[in-house]
Amino acid sequence: MAIQTSINGKAVALSAEPDTPLLWVIREELGLTGTKFGCGVAACGACTVHVDGEPTRSCSVPVSEVAGKSITTIEGLKSADGTLHAVQTAWIAAQVPQCGYCQSGQIMAAVALIEKTGRPSDAQIDAAMTNLCRCGTYPRIRKAIRAATGQAAVAVEGAA
Amino acid sequence: MADNTAIDSASEAPLKRKGVKRRAFLIGGVAVVGAGLFGISIADSNAAKDAKARIIGEGEHGFATWLKISEDDVITIYSPHTDIGQGSNTGLAQMLAEELDATWEQVRVVSAPAEPAFANVGLGRGFLADMTGQPAIINGIPQSFLSFIARQMNLQITGGSTALRFTGQITFQKVGAATRLALMETAAKRLNVPMDELTTQDSRVIHAKSSQSLRYGELAAEAATLSLDNEPKLKDPTQYRLIRQSMQRLDIPAKVDGSAQYGMDFAIPGMRVATIQAAPVRGGKLTSVDTAPALAIKGVEKVIKLDNAVAVVAKGYWPAISGLRALAPSFSDGGHADVSTASIFQAHDAIIAKGEADGEAGQGDVQAALGTKPIKAKYQVPFLHHAMMEPFALTAQYKDGKLDIWGGMQDPLATKMLAVEVSGLDADDVTFHPMIIGGSFGRRLPMYMEIVEQVTQLAMQLPYPVKLIWSREEEVAQGAYRPQSSAVLQAALTDKKRIAAYRNDYAQPESAEDETVFPYILPAVSRRHFAHVSNQQTGAWRSVNSTQQGFYNESFMDELAHAAGEDPVVFRRNHLTAGSRHLRVLDEAAARSGWGTPLPAGRGRGVALVESFKTIVAQVVEASVGEDGMPKVHKVTTVVDAGSIVNPDAAMAQIEGGTIMGLSSAIGEAITLEKGAVQQSNLSDYPLLNMAQAPLSQDIHFLNSGAPMGGIGEPGVPPAAPALANALFAAAGKRVRNLPILTQAKG
Fold it and tell me: Given an 8 Å threshold on Cβ–Cβ distance, is B248 in contact with A95?
């Protein structure tokens, strides 16, 4: 009955009911609370994780759909020796978070974007980074993504 | 099965009163004796003992409530403020560590316990100074008396952009300076040298003459026994090495790797998860509910009826919310079924037209000067939701006669006292454990957080700990909104393009007078408040009344400039005092934004100047209207005079984010009512500005005039809406008088 999957590189057997959203399995069954609940309807992106590398809003995916897949959460971004991912380091350097609640999801979305595009343009950032932030940290998120990909901090309007 | 029955608590005695109200300071009639320290008065030795017992461990030594130094030189600061992401705890630490000459890397900040011993005396003192406008009088009030008042009020609130300007300046810098003197006094005795031969640096007292030095850690035990100087001399700002530096925020590392623990994340063994639905029409009661459909869902354990709500308790959030959705509860409407957005605006129109104001301020004979044909415009703004990203979540456990509550609140001490009141327990048996907050913007004040009462009621009748989570739907439907508000503005112009008279008649629940600063010098001005209260709960929304009043006044000033045929910056300048801070801020914003220089076709610039929380902000927005009717903000230039800034980068972040919040509310946000209930359901129909819609370019500049320090968390919000509306008028010739702008575009 258990659903077999892999979380942050470790094989796990999940006992949750199949219709339970992945978010609540991650938070309540696995105790990985870095992935956040914000809206429950995939509108805000605070619950973003990677499912087979794809940024996924885990509040709206039943756990049964991730059987056999590989899931990465914010806790799985660091390397084995505890070194932060380059995007996390860029987030600290740009002093991005304010309340911080949406930032796990923002970082997961940004990592997926960078893995896909290498050096995302401003238009690619706009298209991919649809996660909401009520504190208004968008300028710093953009700055951190650009810094993490070796681009100048200052965006130029129309250059996208 | 015994576990699976519904508990009916609807018949329990209602709460004695509804939450904790904002209380006024009462000064007369209370006798307090004894000299005071910064936190706790000597006279109140019980409170002092209590504070020490709660925070001082083996090898640690406490100073003035808020500070302890360990024998291995770790400096721990207890903050009575809630750092909601505005960086206030880092700023407070900079201020204390600056005066202490502490090694920054060894400084830690933690939340002060939610106990009366840690009531915020500096904040109380700041409020008094603000209210009376006479700091000299405040300085004459004994510190012990102020600390007594702060404890009486359970004062541990974060709001009003007060952390650094009140708590920081009034308490923390002095605690740092006085502690440094005590450490030096101890060192002088130990080294047998005069105190004036000693200096301090990097958490050491240094005697250069003899090349000796002592670590703070080895002096702390003895220094902690000395009485502290209540008015120590503070550093000259030219000596600052931490204040005015962009120190990295202490809370950020835990917010990038998922390790920060918010109230939502708390868990303890045996805990169940509950979720709740209250009457959709505020003021209504729960009349009936068939609990069976919820109880049939696997994982659901109980359905609990409260006076105006139904809660489902389950093994996890998913069964809890599934159970709640399976229910079809009936609620009464409290007699509010006829309340709607339209009915509230109609009521505003009627009371303003009637002209019987509930309060008036201003000067001059406005009525006569307005004449028979004033320029007149009506403005309307909707209820706004705080929409902080972390929905409400509190965990409570009632065990062995003691109640513990965990979560994030803007006023931990008042939260505790509310739980004391709801539970009927003694204060000693109730503990609130403050956690990190996922956004607040004024929402998480216990006076309008029913969840404190709800979770207390649940925990008191459950044999296990329970985490109560509000769904986002509940969060949107049961807010403490910025009030829906209307204003009728009138003015008359002289033939010299000057305002002869200005009237602002506004309708909303409470007066905005205490917070509104109208900077223009006019011969006759009148602000009249017309009180109208609906069934909706309204509260403080980041920058409070300054958002709607800023929108009204700065939009109308723009209308008057156009009516006078004058440039909006020039027109404002002509009504400001020469040499004033306001004028300097406005001029700087105009210069930096390239005001008056050519723009691409379809673009316009708009300006707004708003003072709030003693900080003056001028903003120029450059905007156009997209083909979809969506306003596009190309560039924002902001000039801020907050007097002085403790952490420039953190302050910059507050202005950036505040501007985006102001633009977001102006463009798309509205809570609307129909049949007494909120029509919006989630963030899907309460649109927040996203990355693509936020301005790509923000130029922010701080003037640092040296005036008394103003707030920084809120003042970035108010100018954005009027500056954008004025820019859209310049771009497209259409005046925005109703927010949000998108409703107008659609209509």
Answer: yes
pLDDT tens sequence across B614-665: 999 999 999 999 888 889 999 999 999 999 999 999 999 999 999 999 999 9
B26-50 per-position pLDDT tens digit: 222 222 222 233 444 433 456 667 7
Q: Minimal CA–CA distance to B381: which of B338, B352, B345?
A: B345
Q: Is residue B20 part of a domain?
A: no
Each residue of B175-186: pLDDT tens digit?
999 999 999 999
Contact A88 B256 (CB under 8 A): yes
Residue A76 has pLDDT above 60, yes or no: yes
Residues B457 and B499 in one domain: no
CB B443 within 8 A of CB B414: no
Where is the domain boundary, B255, B278, B313?
A: B255
The two structure tokens encoding residue B729: 């008028």
Q: Do residue B315 and residue B462 come from a single domain?
A: yes
Q: Note whether B534 contacts A: Cβ–Cβ < 8 A.
A: no
> Which domain-ending residue is among B437, B469, B501?
B469
Which candidate in A99, A113, A133, A151 is best for mutational testing of the B interface (most B CBs within 10 A)? Answer: A99
DSSP assignment letter at A25: I
* Contact criterion met (CB below 8 Å) for B61 and B55: no
Q: Strands (DSSP E) along B21-86, which ranges?
A: 60-63, 67-70, 75-79
The CATH number assigned to the domain with range A3-76 reads 3.10.20.30
Q: What range does the domain containing B627 cover? A: 341-383+481-746
- Do B247 and B120 fall within a single domain? yes
Least Cα distance to B6 among B253, B305, B273, B248 occurs for B305
Q: Please tell me which of the candidates A74, A127, A132 has its beta carbon nearest to residue B258.
A: A74
Over residues B529-578, the pLDDT tens digits come to 999 999 999 998 999 899 999 999 999 999 999 999 999 999 999 999 99
The count of domains in chain B is 3
Domain ranges for chain A = 3-76, 86-148
Asked if residue B177 is part of any domain, the answer here is yes
Distances (CA, A) of B26 to A80, B30, B118, B135, B379: 59, 9, 20, 17, 38
Among A residues 43-102, those touching chain B with beta carbons less than 8 Å apart: 43-44, 46, 73-75, 77-78, 84, 88, 91-92, 95-102
**CB atoms B258 and A126 under 8 Å:** no
Best CA proximity match to B654, nearest among B543, B552, B514: B543
Mean pLDDT (chain A) is: 94
Cβ within 8 Å of residue B134, ≥6 positions away: none
How far CA B193 is from CA of A109, B189, B683, in Å, comes to 61, 7, 66
Report residue B374 as tokens.
């004033």
The yes-or-no verdict on residue B120 having pLDDT over 70 is no
**Which chain B residues are within 8 Å of A95, Cβ to Cβ?**
248-249, 252, 649-650, 653
Lookup: tokens for B707: 């005036």
| Average pLDDT rounded to a whole number, residues B481-508 | 97
Pick the closest to residue B444 from A34, A105, A134 (CA basis): A134
CB of A149 within 8 Å of a chain B CB? The answer is: no
- The b-or-e profile of B662-688 (16+ CB within 10 A means b, else e) is bbbbbbbbbbbbeebbbbbebbeebbb
Flag whether B327 is in a domain.
yes
Q: Was domain A86-148 assigned CATH 1.10.150.120? A: yes
Question: What is the arithmetic mean of pLDDT over A17-26?
Answer: 97
Q: What is the CATH number of the domain that holds B147?
A: 3.30.365.10
| pLDDT tens digits for range B458-481 | 999 999 999 999 999 999 999 999
